[in-house]
Amino acid sequence: MYGVVVDKRDDMSVQSKLTKLRVGVVLSSGGVRGVYAHTGFLLALEKMGVNVKAMAGCSAGAVVGGIYASGTSIQEWVAALSKITPKQFWSPSFLRMGYSFFFRKGRGYSGMSSTRMAMAFCYQHLKVKKFEDCKIPFYTLAKNLLHGCKTLFERGELAPRIVASAAAPLLYEPVQINNELYCDGALLELSPTDAICCKHQLDILIIHHVARHNKGNIGIKQLLQQPWSLIEVLNMLLYQQRPWYLSDDPISFRQCPCGCDAIIVVIEPDLPEILWPATDSGLKVLDNTSQQTMKLLEPYLDSIRYDKTSLIKEVKKSPASSNSDLECGIRYENLN
Ligand SMILES: [Zn+2]
User: Which residues have CB less than 5 Å away from ligand 1 (the ion)?
Assistant: First the structure.
């Protein structure tokens, strides 16, 4: 089904080499599409025999990364996703909205959906309760509403922190943890690379970036024709920052900018859209991502597992990170 590339070399010398390189993985935000895409990506890594030593994730990446790092097998998780319905993570109540607006002047109303269902879903699929007990060291981030700052989570209960990282403002109520309120980490950073890079003696850090990139006017016109285009406008308003590591290629290579020797491999697959909160085409996205990941990484697989020399050559060949999308300080109106 997945057009798998499986490594059949199983002699002891190769096995011992397999443990030599330390690979870390960062999963970006990306909505419902991101949940399926990250799962396809992890499935591909497992099939290619890439051993993950540390993980970090934001928003959709927090959900998939946290559940996987807790010890849930990728097969169990794919099976869960194949049965999921929007009701399991999204429960807006228009009755509650009406009551709150008309009878309470909006008091206490902080989001269209509570996070109760999403939290229950996480508890159901996590193998351990706390970060400290995860099979793979795992980190996530959320925005602290009171202080407006980024908070990196690495201890305590997983479920509330994962849900906090994914709680998009206005769609979900913020999550209360130790008397502080938190919401979507993607408001601050789409992929928390600094959570693991330079901290786990990584040789390679693979960033799987699936947050949406609105390309040009036609893309924006199409988005505005979609149902719930208000949500699209919100998305554009809140999540437009372009991370430092992105290029315009589906795979690119960088050196860690903070001083450790890790090679950063960035993968940005080309994926069809999934509109919030639909899940019907999710498994196609999962399968598609898995195949793209294998195709993109296959030429570098030996380097990723045994020897990063050829990746270092790729870094030297790469043009400097393109910052064209960062030129958002001032743009003058185009009257033509
Ligand atoms: Zn680093």
Answer: 197-198, 256, 258, 260, 262
The alpha carbon of 330 and the centre of ligand 1 are apart by a number of angstroms equal to 32
Residue 332 has pLDDT above 70, yes or no: no
Determine the distance separating the centroid of ligand 1 and the alpha carbon of 86, expressed in angstroms: 37
Burial of 228 (0-12, 13-18, 19+ CB in 10 A): exposed
CA proximity to 20, closest of 190, 202, 155, 247: 202
224: closest CA among 236, 213, 208? Answer: 236
Task: State in Å: Cα 258 to ligand 1 middle.
Answer: 5
Q: Is 142 exposed, middle or buried (0-12, 13-18, 19+ CB in 10 A)?
A: buried
Do β-strands 204-208 and 149-153 pair in parallel, antiparallel, or remain unpaired?
Answer: unpaired
- The predicted pLDDT at position 80 comes to 97
Question: Is pLDDT at 9 greater than 70 in this prediction?
Answer: no
Distance from the alpha carbon of residue 100 to the mean position of ligand 1, in angstroms: 47
pTM score, whole prediction? 0.88
- Tell me the backbone φ, ψ of residue 265, rounded to 5 degrees: -110, 120
Q: Residue 280: is it exposed, middle or buried by C-beta count within 10 angstroms (0-12/13-18/19+)?
A: exposed
The CA–CA distances, whole Å, from 284 to 37, 82, 104, 308, 333 equal 9, 10, 44, 32, 39
